[in-house]
């Protein structure tokens, strides 16, 4: 059984408590945008983007949604609109200028750190500061260590590495550090795991077939979640303390975790 605290934390991740924007789930480039209204528990079509996209990067800064890449820059329209920004107030999209040499198509991961959008492509990645209008490449250290989905807590970008361990990237120091203190309480996340920042705590959500004891149905998949308090000690090392970890949902085995989003309630 989950405690009320666990259930409340879980709902903060999977129940949309504010309107969010999502791209069309089809596997072809699309201009469609869908908006979820938690009050009416319904989806509606939002204002279309200026160009069709797939596998784009995104980030929210100052209440505006920025979308990068996900399109081939083979036409003037796609080239000029490689980056778009959506203003919820005016419900409109506008093009954002971007350097030609940075325009990759496939964007595999993105995160917002200290008011900058970091987006990873097939090779390398870009960092964009909308407030200053400045662009640049991500550091080689960040590029080599960023694997899978990520979340940012207190200015540190967390993801799991190729060994399945959680690591944090300190932008200021330009270095990856292992998150210590969680090794015994969490599995190695080789696939099917994602993360979110909820209340300045790191939440990890992952998949597991059956019930973990060998007795679960092969037709079912468990979704597990762990809440972790992350801190940095005086020497700069990253430490995690697991508040709770439990099964939060059982779904058909054909399901998979696509994304995990933390929202303010």
UniProtKB/TrEMBL annotation:
<dbReference type="InterPro" id="IPR015915">
    <property type="entry name" value="Kelch-typ_b-propeller"/>
</dbReference>
<protein>
    <recommendedName>
        <fullName>FKB95-like N-terminal Kelch domain-containing protein</fullName>
    </recommendedName>
</protein>
<dbReference type="Pfam" id="PF25210">
    <property type="entry name" value="Kelch_FKB95"/>
</dbReference>
<feature type="domain" description="FKB95-like N-terminal Kelch">
    <location>
        <begin position="27"/>
        <end position="249"/>
    </location>
</feature>
<dbReference type="InterPro" id="IPR006652">
    <property type="entry name" value="Kelch_1"/>
</dbReference>
<dbReference type="InterPro" id="IPR050354">
    <property type="entry name" value="F-box/kelch-repeat_ARATH"/>
</dbReference>
<dbReference type="InterPro" id="IPR057499">
    <property type="entry name" value="Kelch_FKB95"/>
</dbReference>
């Amino acid at each position: 059984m989950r405690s009320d605290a666990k259930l409340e934390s879980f709902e903060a991740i999977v129940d949309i408590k504010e309107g969010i924007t999502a791209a069309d789930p089809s596997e072809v480039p699309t201009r469609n945008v869908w908006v979820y209204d938690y009050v009416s528990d319904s989806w509606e079509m939002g204002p279309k983007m200026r160009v069709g996209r797939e596998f784009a990067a995104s980030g929210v800064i100052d209440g505006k949604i920025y979308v990068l890449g996900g399109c081939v820059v083979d036409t003037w329209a796609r080239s000029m609109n490689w980056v778009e920004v959506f203003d919820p107030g005016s419900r409109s999209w506008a093009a954002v200028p971007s350097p030609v040499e940075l325009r990759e198509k496939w964007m595999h991961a993105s995160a917002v750190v200290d008011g900058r959008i970091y987006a990873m492509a097939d090779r390398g990645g870009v960092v964009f500061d909308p407030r200053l209008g400045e662009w640049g490449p991500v550091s080689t250290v960040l590029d080599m260590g960023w694997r899978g989905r990520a979340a940012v807590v207190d200015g540190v970008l967390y993801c799991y590495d190729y060994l399945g361990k959680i690591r944090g990237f300190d932008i200021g120091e330009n270095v990856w550090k292992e998150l210590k203190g969680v090794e015994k309480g969490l599995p190695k996340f080789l696939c099917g795991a994602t993360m979110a920042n909820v209340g300045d705590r790191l939440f990890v959500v992952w998949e597991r077939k059956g019930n973990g004891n060998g007795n679960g149905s092969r037709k079912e998949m468990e979704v597990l979640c762990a809440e972790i308090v992350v801190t940095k000690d005086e020497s700069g090392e990253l430490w995690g303390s697991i508040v709770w970890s439990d099964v939060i949902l059982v779904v058909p085995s054909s399901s998979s975790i696509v994304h995990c989003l933390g929202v303010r309630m």
